[in-house]
């Protein structure tokens, strides 16, 4: 199982003063985090995409290219690229270039995006939310297969054999489909034969099993071969590692509370509570927060619950204000959690 971290490069307000972090300092901390993740042997680092005042990740391929120059082994991916509001040609070129810079470590996770600010910014109608994604995914996959194609769609000018360059270092640039809780998205990933990255930011892991089974059935119906041999399922979850359960929760809670208070205000959710947080960190919740032993046990639980996963990535950016705790969490994830998980899998 591959284990990694994802970052949203958010600017968080100091809980005492309300002042936002310096953008320059926050960007340096993101690059330091991926450098450390590489040093402690983590497998993958993902960069999100947002287009808002408190985020620095509107151009994830640029950040990942800077990370590539400071790392040696870790794989570098979007988490997720909002394909519906992007030009698939340009997105492919950016990540093919990243693949050359990193000597074959680039991947793309594409999705429709749970945050929708990119749509009006780039002139797209939210009523075309799904149609945009379906058309652009089709184009992206065709470009991946060969540089010169003929293609025509509704939302982008036609391509009449012009070449899409550069080509990546890897023979086939890995593309995952990022999904939330929409059944049709799981079916689409299985139908087109793409690895699946499931974002689980609340509730329980158990409630996603029926959706993952939809993916597996769609894969078989589409004729891609037996799922156990060919497909890959990943999980993106909120998580943080501390020396003890209480230390991890103490470091993670303030940023989580602030982020989900802001998100609730935007989306009409009720405000988060301490009791909700404690439940999500407990055995029945979907947060991977705790000591190395607690987190490793919960990862093994996720793996069993969903019938086997190939990758799990931690979204721990909400703790970024505590730089020391953040660095220690990354260290523990690589040096303690990963060996524990792999030992449990072997057993």
TrEMBL record:
* Keywords annotated in UniProt: Monooxygenase, Oxidoreductase, Plasmid
Statement: the UniProt record of this protein carries the keyword Oxidoreductase? yes
Source organism superkingdom: Bacteria
**Ranges of residues in domain Luciferase-like:** 9-304
Q: Give the molecular function GO annotations.
A: monooxygenase activity; oxidoreductase activity, acting on paired donors, with incorporation or reduction of molecular oxygen
Asked whether the UniProt record includes Oxidoreductase among its keywords, one would answer: yes
* Pfam families (UniProt xref): Bac_luciferase
Which InterPro entries does this chain map to? Bact_Lucif_Oxidored (IPR050766), LLM_Atu2307-like (IPR022290), Luciferase-like_dom (IPR011251), Luciferase-like_sf (IPR036661)
According to its record, what are the GO cellular component terms?
Answer: cytosol
The protein's name? LLM class flavin-dependent oxidoreductase
